[in-house]
């Protein structure tokens, strides 16, 4: 048979080549099925019809599935650079831009060719001999910004400072203050660094305290709160280059420019031309924190940790505040259920064959990709670099791993949750529950395949009425959320001594050092005991007494899951509805036994509360408060819309109804007639999740949001004002739960568990700071800190936010 010339073969397949349109998503940086990139040994193959990218091992599967034979092959080869090339420190809080974090990345040479499958016939590109359609298509692909880049923007360029509105007419008090050129100290404590000069009255005060205990004592910002004097300049940043000085505007809550800074400094006798820079600016300090990825203070600081490589020890690249995702997924893929479902029992090829035309939007495919990336060991190889420590000989090499970037997985899992699509830090608990919900949905109808059920368990509430009769309410959940009873701390004497020491130091104007701080220690057993303890429910409506009374509620497990996840409620509500993190240690043993927490069910001889009397169907028709509706109508709103607003806010008031109305004007069913089911749970899920993160149950959060016009603060107040809301309905279900009359389909066994994973959080809020995972693997604890994976020297078992336990069989 005559062999076809490569160019003729290409021409015969021109119908399988498309010139991309501006709206087409072009993948060119990472394989859709694996974590291969143009830098991988086989390079990357871009389908010139679908613009999906595939690694060398996967491109053949795409040809088999689609029949598309023409690919643009991209290969990046590292350029040789002098070993003594100086290391540049980043000067901008940015990635991939001049002066940003990628300055010292190796340089690569990129080559292209046109490849025709199945025989991998290669034609050079660029080449004038190629058909024009192929040249235009390949040029467009090469010049296009990759879909991966568009969907995962990583350029965090710091905002340009603007001129403060308070600088132009700044009031300065003639109080005789003259600032010396050196020897500064905070007027309210002994701090001699991180000092700020208030430009109104000349007070020198220390800056804010950082969440990790470093920084100042908040005296400068407290002075602003007391006086309202708006501008302060950081001493030590003032030089002849006045624009580089760090001026902060408290009311504008940002670093600003003061065009009259020279005049404002001269008022206090400061000659800026003679000053030398001794302090970092706010932006520089932020850069310094961002480049110090070791977080020495909080992640086994000072410990020399041995890096680990191989199957199951692959790190995840931080995509920008994505540590909540990385820490959670590392623990999830330690479980047998998820390993079996997406790795052992499902190959990449099998997942691709059942995936839709675009595998980048398929959760099953991207979970399989992530599982194989984490567990195969293919991407957990040591990369040797010169150690950054200049005190070590330049030839010393430290092995590191690059990790894999979970971009496509994050994009898929975040598609139904706008917050997770952002680059902001998120709550690991909220992500974990959302993730399990999506996994359960994707396996709907295939319960035997659903790995999420390994975390699911049944809970039964027993409500004892003062009449002596009882009611039972069952529900299912994925996590056991525990309050922390601080009054059960085991180190009360040490705490009392610390309180006295702190009071003495404050009276002397001194601060307590980090080494002197004593935190309460609460045993995990006390938290579990608190969960099981009887809880009084006031104003409980008894169907036996036909009146409100006080009841006792107790809770117990109806089934024990394969994996038990405990959530420590370290965040409580302070005055003004501000979440505050409890500074507390939880003493967690390696083995726990919760068999005593199993619900005993209906006791013999126990009399159940009678069912509520049946209500006439017509009386169940929702009705709107006429006064609320009349007031809204008088403002010009539609009568039907006003009735719906009143109904959906449970007739809470005009303001609540108006808030609901304004936020639902564009609802597609706003003009539909009112029906019995119209006042359903149509509330903003993100607001429900916020209330759940505060520790409230799902159905209570929804009811509160409806009653408050979806105002978070008013909803929180409503909950506290209605303490019986959590049990007002016998079929109420808890956070992310499913109402259940039985536990069919749930795994069950003994209540003895071994601790296998910890997700720890460092920071003042779940939406800032950093998450790290510690996992028990092959008999040793391992720290997973984004892309870094190492043997853990001192796992922080007492600092966990989420604890993962595995049931001990038998």
TrEMBL record:
One annotated GO biological process: proteolysis
Residues in USP domain copies: 314-808
Membrane spanning stretches: none
Function: Recognizes and hydrolyzes the peptide bond at the C-terminal Gly of ubiquitin. Involved in the processing of poly-ubiquitin precursors as well as that of ubiquitinated proteins.
GO MF term list: cysteine-type deubiquitinase activity; zinc ion binding
Keyword field: Hydrolase, Metal-binding, Protease, Repeat, Thiol protease, Ubl conjugation pathway, Zinc, Zinc-finger
Highest taxon above the source species: Eukaryota
Boundaries of every UBA domain copy: 623-664, 682-722
Region feature Disordered, mapped onto this chain: 602-621
Biological source species: Arachis duranensis
Gene: LOC107462501
Protein name according to UniProt: Ubiquitin carboxyl-terminal hydrolase
Stored SUPFAM superfamilies: Cysteine proteinases, RING/U-box, UBA-like
């Amino acid at each position: 048979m005559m062999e076809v010339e490569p160019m003729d073969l290409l021409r015969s397949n021109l119908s399988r080549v498309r010139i991309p349109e501006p709206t087409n998503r072009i993948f060119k940086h990472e394989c859709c099925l694996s974590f291969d990139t143009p830098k991988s040994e086989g390079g990357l193959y871009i389908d010139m019809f679908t613009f999906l990218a595939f690694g060398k091992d996967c491109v053949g599967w795409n040809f088999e599935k689609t029949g598309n034979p023409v690919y643009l092959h991209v290969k990046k080869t590292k350029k040789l650079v002098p070993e003594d090339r100086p290391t540049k420190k980043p000067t901008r809080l940015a990635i991939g831009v001049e002066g940003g974090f990628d300055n010292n990345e190796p340089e690569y040479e990129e080559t292209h060719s046109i490849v025709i499958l199945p025989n991998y016939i290669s034609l050079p590109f660029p080449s004038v001999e190629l058909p024009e359609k192929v040249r235009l298509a390949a040029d467009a692909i090469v010049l296009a910004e990759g879909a991966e880049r568009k969907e995962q923007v990583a350029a965090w360029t710091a905002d340009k400072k603007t001129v403060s509105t308070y600088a132009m007419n700044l009031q300065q008090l003639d109080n005789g203050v003259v600032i010396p050129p050196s020897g500064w100290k905070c007027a309210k404590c002994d701090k001699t660094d991180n000092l700020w000069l208030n430009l109104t009255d000349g007070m020198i005060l220390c800056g804010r305290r950082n969440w990790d205990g470093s920084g100042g004592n908040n005296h400068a910002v407290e002075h602003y709160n007391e006086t309202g004097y708006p501008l302060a300049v950081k001493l030590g940043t003032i030089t002849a280059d006045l624009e580089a000085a760090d001026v902060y505007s408290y009311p504008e809550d940002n670093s600003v420019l003061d065009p009259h800074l020279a005049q404002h400094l001269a008022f206090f006798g400061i000659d800026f031309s003679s000053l030398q820079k001794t302090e970092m600016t706010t932006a520089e300090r932020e850069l310094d924190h961002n480049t110090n990825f070791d977080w020495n203070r909080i992640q086994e600081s000072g410990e020399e940790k041995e890096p680990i490589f191989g199957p199951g020890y692959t790190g995840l690249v931080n995509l920008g505040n994505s540590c909540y995702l990385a820490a959670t997924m590392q623990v999830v893929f330690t479980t047998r259920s998820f390993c079996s479902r997406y790795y052992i029992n499902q190959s990449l090829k099998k997942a691709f064959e059942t995936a839709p035309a675009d595998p980048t939007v398929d959760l099953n495919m991207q979970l399989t990709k992530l599982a194989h990336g984490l567990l195969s060991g293919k991407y957990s190889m040591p990369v040797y670099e010169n150690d950054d420590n200049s005190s070590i000989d330049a030839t010393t090499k430290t092995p590191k791993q690059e990790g894999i970037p979970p971009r496509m997985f994050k994009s898929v899992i975040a598609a139904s949750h706008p917050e997770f699509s952002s680059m902001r830090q998120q709550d690991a608990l909220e992500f974990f529950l959302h993730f399990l919900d999506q996994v359960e949905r994707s396996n709907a109808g295939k319960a035997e395949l659903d790995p999420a059920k390994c975390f699911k368990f049944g809970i039964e509430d027993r409500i004892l009425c003062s009449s002596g009769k009882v009611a039972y309410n069952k529900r299912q959940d994925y996590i056991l959320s525990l309050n922390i009873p601080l009054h059960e701390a085991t180190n009360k004497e040490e705490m009392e001594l610390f309180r006295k020491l702190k009071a003495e130091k404050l009276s002397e104007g001194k601060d307590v050092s980090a080494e002197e701080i004593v935190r309460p220690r609460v045993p995990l057993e006390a938290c579990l005991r608190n969960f099981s303890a009887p809880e009084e429910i006031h104003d409980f409506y008894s169907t036996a007494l036909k009146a409100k009374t006080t009841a006792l509620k107790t809770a117990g497990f109806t089934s024990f899951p394969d994996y038990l996840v405990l959530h420590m409620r370290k965040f409580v509500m302070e005055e003004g509805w501000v979440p505050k993190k409890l500074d507390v240690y939880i003493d967690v043993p390696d083995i726990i036994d919760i068999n005593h927490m199993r619900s005993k069910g209906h006791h013999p001889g126990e009399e159940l509360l009678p069912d509520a009397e049946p209500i006439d169907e017509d009386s169940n028709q929702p009705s709107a408060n006429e006064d609320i509706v009349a007031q809204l109508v008088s403002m010009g709103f539609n009568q039907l819309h006003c009735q719906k607003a009143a109904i959906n806010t449970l007739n809470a008031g005009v303001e609540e109804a108006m808030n609901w109305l304004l936020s639902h004007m564009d609802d597609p069913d706003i003009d539909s007639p009112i029906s019995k089911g119209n006042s359903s749970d149509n509330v903003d899920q993100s607001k429900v999740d916020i209330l759940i993160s505060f520790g409230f149950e799902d159905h209570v959060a929804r009811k509160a949001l409806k009653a408050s016009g979806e105002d978070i603060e008013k909803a929180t107040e409503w909950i506290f004002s209605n303490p019986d809301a959590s049990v007002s309905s016998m079929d109420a279900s808890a956070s992310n739960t499913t109402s259940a009359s039985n536990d069919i389909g749930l795994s069950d066994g003994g209540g003895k568990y071994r601790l296998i994973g910890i997700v720890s959080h460092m920071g003042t809020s779940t939406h800032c700071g950093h998450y790290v995972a510690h996992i028990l693997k092959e008999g040793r604890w391992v720290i997973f800190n984004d892309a870094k994976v190492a043997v853990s020297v001192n796992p922080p078992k007492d600092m966990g936010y989420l604890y993962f336990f595995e049931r001990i069989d038998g």
